[in-house]
Specification:
72% of the residues lie in helices and 0% in strands. 32% of the residues are buried. It has helices at residues 4-16, 18-31, 41-61, 72-93, 96-99, 101-104, 114-139, 150-175, 179-192, 205-211, 215-229, 237-261, 265-268. It has one domain (65-268). α8 (150-175) runs parallel beside α12 (237-261). The chain has 269 residues and is an all-alpha fold. It is globular, with a radius of gyration of 19 Å.
Amino acid sequence: MFGINHLFNFIKDIFTQRKMLWTLAKNDFKQQFLGSALGIAWAFIQPTVMIVLYWFVFTFGFRTQAVENVPYICWLIAGLVPYFFFTDAWGKASNVIIEYSYLVKKIVFPVRMLPIIKIISSFYIHLFFIAFVIIMFWIYGYTPDWYYLQLFYYVFALWVLLLGLSWLASAIQVFLKDMSQMISVISQILFWGTPILYNQSILPHKILMVLKLNPLFYIVEGYRDIFIYKVWFWQHLYLTIYFWVITLFIFVIGALIFRQLRPHFADIL
């Protein structure tokens, strides 16, 4: 079982291996764009272009109306940014065991740390876009306030969810090569199953209750609570309790499966 001692040891490993983790994550981030003329700039150019396209299409193409008196592009970006981080980190972390197979074969290396490398690598871009969103909202007249402190909470919540899913996916990927494709499909389902492009208020109550089962729903709406609605996370008491129950369940299941399959990684690789 995954108990308090395992969690304590994991946190201890993160602390003792923190320099190595940051170094590996930084190198991983640079490695993705090695050889290209613009280098790591592509990490920020690609999603920025996508956001600009969204802005152009919905502002001048569809001429989308404001959502609850909030410019649609602001409302949209607040939901897109956490989704981008989630899908990018989860997709990359699913293949981390195979990519870093040379470390897996070293008995002294804490293999369970590997997914964190990919999450940190993706987090660099996420930090950039959090700053992008803050500036964008400021331009539209939404000045920073105390609600912005909740960014630390929602980022932490997203990290815990990602880590559990990454342990699960990366362990299975070693034995089932189709896992990456499955994650791509699931990410598309989550995109449309989360109120990113549309407002949850337009949905029938029964459908909304089903969509709230998706933990990403809590994160996306949480980011909007920070930048738009000005609501503290504890004001969504039942949704917060549900999110942490399902997220901690995923975290524990992911840790257990990873630990069970870990001894077989070197044989398969």
